[in-house]
Amino acid sequence: MARHTRGRALKLSIVLPVLNEAQQLARTLGALAPLRERGCEVIVVDGGSTDDTPEIARPLADRVVVASRGRANQQNAGAGVARHEALLFLHADTQLPVGADRLILAALGGRAVWGRFDVAFRDLPDEAAPLPRMLDVVAQMMNWRSRVSGIATGDQCIFVAKDVFHRVGGFPAQPLMEDVELSRRLKTVSPPVCLRACAKTSPRRWLKHGVWRTILLMWWLRLAYWFGASPSTLARWYGYS
Length: 241
What we know:
Shape: globular
Number of strands: 10
Number of domains: 1
Largest sheet: 8 strands, mixed
């Protein structure tokens, strides 16, 4: 059972940062309908979309707000208006496991204050060919590395008690590795709960740029970050304008 705050059971606010996600947003938000029926709040934070993203989001979310572009800025803005005591940060191309809200609230019902899910890559509806088997290995390595290091990535759907999120200062104002830095901050409070239920994320970037090339790029970016490279430089190498 979820712990109680001032006599009330914890409830969950889900924050989705979006930018030009009209193609897949309806599917992502539609999958959250059962969670909304159970009392979860869904907040879509738009970073200045030039397509129909805000219009698609409005009937399928509890709130649609606008923030300056950048995943960290947008997620902090969503957390700032969240009504509930627990936060979940969800990417627009990622689908939660069944009953994710119950799993999160159960995890936060004890002594834990934050955590994440395992991740797997999902088939794309517009791709006829099966996904490369190497992507299964990539996902397993991501989950193993996270379990050993206590560092979570955004694709693993980080969740956290709202008061703790604000206590550590939220996401840092940087264009890349904001999830890694938030994990570092949260680790000073407690280790994460690593839930084995899998969030399923899109492999589109991996397929576009090549699996091995993307593996090497991600390891290079992470290594450079640990050695002090600026997040702005890393964002340019990653391909962000």
